[in-house]
Design goal:
two-stranded antiparallel ribbon, elongated, mainly alpha
């Protein structure tokens, strides 16, 4: 039996070890461990092989954002992608509003795009409500003229709010990095998939808005607004609908 076939058998046993039947799961796990010990195969070899034989998948989301997404939109997409070991790219076909494309293995891109969509909408609503609540006559720094200057300051404060909201939510998203979705061996296969399908890609970056002392209250409001967001992790890889987001 070749090494690849042995690792194939180990991978099958490990998948069976996720069975809802406890006896079947325990037996499959024992067999996988026995084979790994017998042929001196380590976890890294199994994980790398498992990723390499899986077909890459992708899932696209229309962000309904501006043609040049703000920093908080990019930060959210990268936060979610990293949690599910995906890579996220921005696609602009015919100069339309950008699509965020999550690329990874199994159903990870689908789950990542789902979570991104829910959090993007939730944060978008919270940011819009914050902007409506600003009393510009009292809160805009003296010296701004009415019109463009006031709108710019209003948008800046809303982005400070959004960054604080995202900071508070980030730890809740990162919890998926340590569950069954996590597989650190996907980087190379994803790169190969992207290079083959899309060719050369360019980096797109936005810098965060630098907070100032008067922004302290906006930061507190943003962090408090994120406290209502709750994420419930799935019990199995295939249970994408158990990834539930409770957010206003």
């Amino acid at each position: 039996m070749t090494l690849n076939k042995i690792i194939d058998k180990i991978c099958k046993c490990l998948r069976l070890a996720e069975s809802a039947n406890p006896n079947e799961a325990a037996s499959a796990l024992r067999q996988a461990i026995s084979l790994m010990r017998k042929y001196d195969i380590n976890d890294e070899q199994v994980n790398t092989h498992e990723v390499s034989i899986n077909q890459m998948n992708e899932s696209a989301v229309n962000s309904s954002s501006a043609s040049k997404p703000a920093y908080w939109v990019l930060a959210l997409s990268n936060l979610v992608a990293d949690a599910f070991d995906c890579r996220v790219y921005i696609s602009r076909k015919n100069r339309t509003k950008p699509d965020f494309i999550f690329i990874g293995v199994d159903n990870h891109p689908e789950v990542a795009s789902y979570l991104f969509t829910i959090l993007y909408r939730s944060l978008g609503r919270a940011r819009a409500n914050f902007m409506k609540g600003l009393d510009l006559d009292k809160s805009v720094i003296t010296g701004f003229k009415a019109g463009a200057g006031a709108v710019k300051e209003r948008r800046r404060r809303a982005n400070i709010f959004a960054q604080a909201w995202l900071f508070r939510v980030s730890n809740k998203v990162k919890m998926f990095k340590n569950n069954k979705y996590s597989n650190p061996n996907v980087t190379k296969p994803v790169d190969e998939y992207v290079n083959k399908k899309y060719g050369l890609t360019l980096d797109y970056q936005q810098n965060p808005i630098e907070a100032e002392a008067p922004d302290y209250n906006d930061i507190i409001i943003g962090m408090r607004a994120a406290e209502d967001v709750s994420l419930f992790r799935p019990l199995r890889k295939t249970d994408k609908h158990l990834l539930t987001v409770m957010a206003n």
